[in-house]
Amino acid sequence: MSELIMDKVLINPSDISCFTEKKGSIFVVITSPELCESISFGRIGAYSKTITISVGQSESMGEKFWEGVPIKSHILVILPDIYFRSPSSEQLGPDRQLAVMACHSTPTTFQAIQHFLGQSENTDSERQDKTAEKFFDIGSASSRLIFEDSHTGLQLTFNHTSDDLIWHEQIGKLEWGQQQLFPSGEISTLPVDVFGQNINDSLDMNGQLVLHGFPVLHGGDVSYLREDQARIFSELSALREYPVIAHVSNGKVTRWEATMAGADKVVQMLEALCKIDGRYETVVEVGFGINTSLKLFPGNNAMNEVYGADNGAVHFGFGIIPFTQYHLDIICPHLGVKDDSGKVFFGAKKYTS
Amino acid sequence: MEAIQIEPDKLTPFGEDDVDTFFLVTNQSWVEKFSLHSTIKYKNHNIISYNDSRDFKSRLAKNIIPQHCHLLVILPNCLFQSIPEEIIGNRKILFMACKSGEIGAEGIKHFLKCGYATDPGELQAISDNIFNKGEASDRFIIKDKADASIEADFNHMEDYYDWHEQLGFVDWGGQQIFPAGEIACFSVPLKEESLSSRLFNLSGNIIFTGPVIVQSGPPSFRPRDQMHIYEKLNSVSSGLNLHISKGVITQIEPMSVDDAEAADMLSSLIKVDSRYSNIYEVGLSLNNKIRLFPGNTAMNEVWGEDGGNIHLGLGMLPFTQYHVDMFCKNAYIINEKSDLIFGKKRMDVKKSSICPCIPL
Questions:
Q1: B143 and B10 co-located in one domain
Q2: Residue of A275, A320, A325 best to disrupt the B interface, most CBs of B under 10 A
Q3: Is A196 contained in some domain?
Q4: Cα(A98)–Cα(A88) distance, rounded to whole angstroms?
Q5: What would the pLDDT profile of A123-139 be if each residue is shown by its tens digit?
Q6: CB of B193 within 8 Å of any CB in chain A?
Q7: Could you tell me the residue range of the domain that residue B29 belongs to?
Q8: pTM
């Protein structure tokens, strides 16, 4: 568990469960010059030593950079001020493990870093592997997934078996040469061809999607103002209390419907986003947060995305970086996911008709 | 379709140089659409084709395109980006802005015709006159022909403004839009981090009447979104009364119910990216030979018919997704002594039931 000691961030490398084969390995933290002095190490367990590398600019992380990072190392990246571009497999090499705190696409405070470091040390990577295995077993046996709102019973049907989908895992234990988000805990799927600026492909998804929960508004490569990001996030945050129904046809939102007066401003903001960039109408991602030990940190925090509530939490993504200004995730802990049997196997279970 | 006639001898902004060579630079897929007219001025003329404007730049730098020539660049398929003077070297470039707002062959023909009719010397004289009067004025007042109560105060002499001329004759090593005819004032520096500071010392009310140009740039966008935004903004009918405070639009007031969609679209732009509320450009369009071409057409920007037109520029490429030029065709500029600086005043007409010279 990380502890706040004055202005220090205490990292206990031995408690971070996603890294494997710690004995004799080097624990490396790559961070900003500002944070560098605040990092201190507690329990290092079987690690041979710890190193902190300071990086002030994205440009200084070119190809040569990775040659300077020791091999047989477990690397934790904490770079709130600069855009971190994931290294290629060749750059990372076969003898390093990399975990990255997603702390640039949303403004991340010192306190948020401390919080998520603590959450990551609570994260049980083995349990995540088991959860994912079960998730894929049930998913593979079902012809479709139904997302049902536990309050209203409104449903969205998703053909998750389509060959046009790519599934991603950000979970469990790392092996040498691998990298993932930190804290981990997300399974997600996107259409294969989504990474084009026209978003030609969409998900085979129809029905009424009740958006009720926690937004995360990521900024990307396209210029934007942090003030605008904060303002848009603030407007969308009413979703915590006031649900909005997205009427979805073939993976595209045809109408945003406010369920009560408080949701009006959310709908207005979503409509404005879609008017200016119609790509926000497409559901580009279905995410399944499985980090059930993670506690949400208030505000707009990318690291909230893996939030798994008690039994997993679904989130939906709109807008695709680097093409749109923002990528909007809406975490919906009130949704339950049903398989062909009609049983909720993921997410909220409370709805009874 | 009839070929687009390029008449090199009518490209008057090149001046009366003793130059032998003229090139038309265009995209590969457009080569067949052009026909080079016979010329008295140039001994050699030819078409160079490229698919990427970076190729063009590189060929200039490597002197694959010879020095001492005149170039007309029409690249409908790729964005033309300004070329440093040292790379242009001993050449002159005219370019048609035909990518950032979509235009077809008919549009290119239309603006070539307007450009051939344009007199660079006349535009230079008009521009010189504006600057002379401007320097002799303490302040500009932007008035409205249709409504005497509408006005905005524009302190045009702030040190941090940059005034640009796109008109007259091109110098060696220079590049200019064709057809030309604009004086544009920007608040500088236009850097990403300062896009919300150092704004115009401009406050009051200006009526946006249309037309509008929604120009795209390097940031990713969908052409259909660009067209949708254009159509909604261009649907403006009676006008949008823009309330402006220190260079920032603080309120958008539709003048009639028919202006609601345009107002809604402008509000949405600002809602998504607040930088659209900043006025980054005050443009004086003074090419009186330009006739508006329908649609979202970048080359309409120099439209100065009927005494000159003012447009306001919102959004700044390459930072915002679009740059929006909003014509305020009833606007004109006077100074503190009510001398006309730019545009055309309306005669002050009062309805009278009797002749005022006959006292009752």
A1: no
A2: A275
A3: yes
A4: 11
A5: 888 999 999 999 999 99
A6: no
A7: 4-95
A8: 0.91
